[in-house]
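Appendix B, record 7
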Amino acid sequence: MPDEPDELINAVAHTEDAFAGQLGQLDYEEGLDPNAHDSDVIQLRKACRLLDACRLLRDHNGYHTSVIEMSFAAIERTLEFYALTASNDTIDDFREGHDRAYDRGADLRLVTEETARRMKQLYRDNRAAAYYRDTVAAAQQADAMFDLAVTVHDYVKNFAQLAHECRCQH
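C-alpha cells (predicted):
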C-alpha cells in the first residue's frame, strides 16, 4: 500500500467536514437556498447555473467536454423541474440513473416519446462516450449540445408558465 501524502488525507477530511456541515453555516448560491425554495425551483435554477457556466466556458474558447457534460445535466435538471412541478414525483425519484428525467418528460406529455428516446440516445452515445471512453469532444458538438440544452430549458420553463423562476444570466 503506498504512503499517501498528508495533503491528500487532509483534503479528504476537509471535504468530508464541508459536506457534514462542520465548516460553519453553508453559503449557497443566490437563489439556490434549499431552506427558501421548493425542490422544483431549485432544479430549474441549478439548470440555469449550469447553462451560465457553459456560457462562461464557451467564452474562453474551449472546454468542450465540460460544456457537453453540463449541457446534459442542465437538460436533466430542467426536465426534473417540470416533473416535480407537474406531478407527485419527488427529487428522490431521480436518483437512480439518467433515463428517468427523459421518461418523465414523455410520461407527462412535455415531449413526445420519440423526442425523449432521441435525447436518451444522445446521452448514451455521446455523453457517455466523451466521459468514459477516449472520444474527444469537438467545438461543433459542444455548440450543438449547448444549443439543445438552452432550447429545452426555454421551452420547459415557458411550457410550465414559470419562466419568472428562471435565473439565467443571458
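Remarks on this record: The chain has a mean pLDDT of 91. DSSP finds six helices and no strands in the chain.
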